[in-house]
User: Which sequence fits this backbone?
């Protein structure tokens, strides 16, 4: 592989970006103790300082460009890892490419929509509107964005994770088989299980599981790139 050092450095930047996105999602979604969930409404939203939502938006804006640097290198690594004569490898490499780019777009989209909903609920809570009216307004706002949000979420998580697991299972990616768990889809599932514990600190951490999955996937990608043979330089004539 050409420029292995640069590729690994960009993946490290990608991991940093994913960590920043984790902080952004935690700030906007970690509702703390004694929070109750009413559909998609969190009862502790009005108690959360507005600065948490503002910093969350700033962090996701900073984290996604860094994450994109790592995402590009992961796409290159998957392309180089496929067997040229394998149709399945080619299809999976193309799916990984498309879904990683969807992930880059989807992270700020999903975070922006859910943060806007939380801010809207918080602002309306301090007005004279009745609780049922506030919930109706917030849910109506969400329904306008529901289709693109869930589409990006499903395709980015499932497509990226399934294709990545395919490359590990078929020994195209030279990492331990346990790394099959290092993807956003698995981490999202673990996060949903953490929410069932009703322990608020685990429920709060579950909010950051998706970017955590991307960070682990990039870490596995760095290990794979480190094991790839360096490209031979052509002798000067």
Assistant:
């Amino acid at each position: 592989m050409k420029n292995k050092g640069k590729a690994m450095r960009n993946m490290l930047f990608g991991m940093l970006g994913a960590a920043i996105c984790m902080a952004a999602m935690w700030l906007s979604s970690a509702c703390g103790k004694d929070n109750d969930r009413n559909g998609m409404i969190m009862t502790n939203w009005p108690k959360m300082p507005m600065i948490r939502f503002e910093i969350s938006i700033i962090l996701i804006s900073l984290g996604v460009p860094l994450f994109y640097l790592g995402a590009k290198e992961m796409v290159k690594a998957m392309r180089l890892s496929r067997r040229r004569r394998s149709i399945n490898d080619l299809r999976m490499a193309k799916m990984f490419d498309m879904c990683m780019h969807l992930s880059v777009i989807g992270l700020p989209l999903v975070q922006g929509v859910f943060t806007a909903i939380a801010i809207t609920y918080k602002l309306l809570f301090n007005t004279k509107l009745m609780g049922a009216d506030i919930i109706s307004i917030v849910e109506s706002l969400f329904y306008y964005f529901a289709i693109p949000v869930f589409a990006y979420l499903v395709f980015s998580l499932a497509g990226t994770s399934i294709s990545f697991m395919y490359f590990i299972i078929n020994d195209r990616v030279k990492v331990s088989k346990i790394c099959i768990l290092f993807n956003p889809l698995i981490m999202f599932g673990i996060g949903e299980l953490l929410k069932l514990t009703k322990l608020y600190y685990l429920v709060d951490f579950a909010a950051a599981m998706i970017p955590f999955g991307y960070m682990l996937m990039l870490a596995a990608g760095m290990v794979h790139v480190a094991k790839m043979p360096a490209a031979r330089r052509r002798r000067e004539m």
The first helix runs from residue 4 to 29.
